[in-house]
Amino acid sequence: MADRVYLDWNATTPLRPEAKAAMVAAWDQSGNPSSVHSEGRKARRLVEDARGTIAQAVGGRPQDVVFLSGGTEANALALTPRLRRGAAAPVVRLLVSAIEHASVLAGGRFAAGAIEQIRVTSTGVIDLGHLRALLADGAPALVSVMLANNETGAIQPVAEVADIVHAAGGLLHVDAIQAFGKIPFDLGSTGADMLTLSAHKIGGPKGVGALVVAEGVEGLESLLRGGGQELGRRAGTENVTGITAFGAAAAAAMAALGDDAGRVRVLRDRLEQGLRETPGTIVFSDHIERLPNTILFTAAGMKAETAVIGFDLAGVAVSSGSACSSGKVQPSHVLAAMGYRSDVAQGAVRLSLGWSTSETDVELALKAWRKLADTLVRGERRNTA
Question: Organism's domain of life (predicted)?
């Protein structure tokens, strides 16, 4: 609907025109990219061009980009026991931060007894002291820490994490899905041994993602077997249409990165200022570096489910956290890890902006919030007075 305001970009983004055009063009390619005839070679060229674009975007090598069905599969592939770099001992346990996406908290193919959680601070940043203690107390570990949290937007000190992990003989996996296209980074600046990316967070289609593996990392074992696609790291015919659109979206996102981030940050700050006009408002992780597009907030007496429905009825799409779990009536595990009480965590609502968000969108969202606040927040205070 043209009169609706979309503020749930961290869940998924609209399809970029460049990605849509690439998809339409790819539909006309009938060949299988593993076939050696002309049609197959044309399809292969589309896949490899996209691979090169994504590798360039994150400072990797094309041959180290593995295409998968999305971020969840990419995370699951990364969490492989016995990974190693060179002559170093293979990793045999997994350390994950307590605020990771559910696909990382699940632990991939590590046994439950080999997985430990790293605490985070009250601001939503990984506790480096606890990480050091965990690394010192056991065998070599694979550590998984997201670059930017999908709920709070808090940016993690992954370069420091990488130094700590590598000094202890471990490897670092960075879930960069929310950060890609919003802030600049690459394999070198993060120190990551593996990065995961997802197309639909940057204006590409749903159902395609990538794992980028740093040079020298060995031991990755395919989740799907039966074919030699992706250099044996992911069996199955490649999603040529989705991969081609992923590459186009990545190119467009990187070209607009600086301008988009600056403009969106101004709008985010204006929106946040308006939210704070309601007494008792809490904006989570507001005193640390965050993604320029993300606000996770609550107000005294607010229930997230009621607020999300209220926003929706007012024509504004928002969420109560990760889209993978927003349908569940339970507090955010991210806020719980930060030490917030369940009644506070149950009231958290996420607003996330993107490249087409306008000043009018922000004003309409604030207008909707002011009406909601009067009934949801002030009304709750009157009922409990």
Answer: Bacteria
| Catalytically annotated residue among 25, 128, 257, 324 | 324
* Alpha helices for the chain (secondary structure H): 17-27, 38-57, 71-78, 102-105, 128-136, 158-167, 187-190, 240-255, 257-275, 304-313, 333-337, 342-345, 359-376, 378-384
Provide the CATH number for the domain formed by 5-14+257-384 in this structure.
Answer: 3.90.1150.10
Q: What is the pLDDT of residues 117-141, one digit of tens each?
A: 999 999 999 999 999 999 998 899 9
| 17-255 is a CATH 3.40.640.10 domain | yes
* Residue type present at position 165: V
Is 324 designated active site?
yes
pLDDT, tens digit, 9 for 90 and up, residues 155-188: 999 999 999 999 999 999 999 999 999 999 999 9
Domain boundaries, the chain: 5-14+257-384, 17-255
What does the pLDDT average to over 332-355?
Answer: 94
